[in-house]
Amino acid sequence: MAKTRNHLSRNPHELALDDPRGDVLADVLGTSLLRNAMYRRIECGAPWGMDVPEHDRATFYVLVRGNARFEIQGEPACELRAGDTLFIPHGTAHVVRDSKQSKPVRVCDGTPQPRGAVRRLGGTGEQSTLIKGFFQFAGRKPSLLEGMPRSICLTATDPTLHRWTAATLQLILAESSSPGPASVLMLQRLADVLFVQTLRTLATQRSGLAALADPAIHEALSILHGKVDHPWTVATLAKKVGLSRSGFAARFAALVGEPPLQYLTRWRMGRAAELLRDTRRRVAEIASDVGYESVPSFNKAFRRWQGASPTTFRARYAGAI
Question: Are 34-205 and 214-320 in the same CATH fold?
Answer without folding.
Answer: no
